[in-house]
Amino acid sequence: MKSYGTNRRISSTELWTLMYVFMIASSMSLPIGYTTGHDSWISAVIGALLGLGIAWIYAALSGTFPEQSIVHIAQALLGTWAGKAIGLLYAGYGFQLGAYVLRNFEDLTVTVLLPRTPSFVISFIMIAISAWAAYKGIEVICRCALIILIFVALQSVIFIVLLIPDMDPGFLLPVLEGGWQPILDGAAQIATFPLGETVLFVMIIPFVNRGERIRKTVLSAVGVSGVLLITSHLFNIMVLGELASKQVFPSYTSAMYISVGDFFERIEPIVFTVWVFGEFTKLTVCLFAAALALAQTLGSRDYRMYVVPLALALLELSLFLHPSQLDVIEFQQHVWPWFSVPFQVVIPFVLLVCALVRRRYRRLS
Prior knowledge:
The longest helix has 33 residues, at 80-112. The protein is built from 13 helices and two strands; from the N terminus they run αααααααααββαααα. Helix content is 70%, strand content 1%.
């Protein structure tokens, strides 16, 4: 594998951790998949299975071409110019996804914590920290994720255990009240956001030191994250009922119900803090993947020269993406899933088919 700046190796455990934290970041706050009220947990189950299918496609592609990113794979299969075009597309995809991650962080922070602080200040601090981590390289990003995983695990256990007294299983009934169409719409949202967004890891998988374990690592990370999403949907519905689908931040709202003995309550700041860590990880991965894809497409030897310009452009884009937070959520629920399909499914699937056909042709010849 060619060197593009800091080119160090990471273990499969570090890849798993980074993917897991990446996926649970926005999913713990945004109302993704809550299109059917109390049936939203069914959307989560179907979406998790679809997400596993998407992960299998790009994991199989990466396993077929060890130590090569999707930019190099596309150039090997489709030629230089087509490969460069795909590289630019994925650089743009990572860049735009990072802009939405930064915007989500800005909206939630302004809403629940710092309503009088200018949005630019909040976004600038986050993008500056993420740019520093991306500049330091994939090894630093993974070590940050390993530390964050501890807080994510503790928060998940606390969240689940302390919400049990406030749950009402009756809120899950009746089943399939609105039919299958809204359930499938919610499943498409969950499959593409956040599970399918892990397609950006085709830029990171080449750094793994044990290529033979890539498929197992990727599928297990997506599977565990899918289980967490299903659990989150179930708990939020059993606590909030039909209100879960009407909340801007359902998990954060559920955390406000936690009260133990009238002295241990108001723990939603813990949820917010862990969410900030997750958003930092996801934003850093998007910035790193976009810079690396751009460097490989343009033939640059060091991706780090693109980190700061991309970070500044990403900051500017996040501030003007949509006029309001509700518009952002509407876009992510109904437009983003369709926008993501070419990057998450179509391109990796076409490349995988081309790779299998070429392999079969070589065997026959």
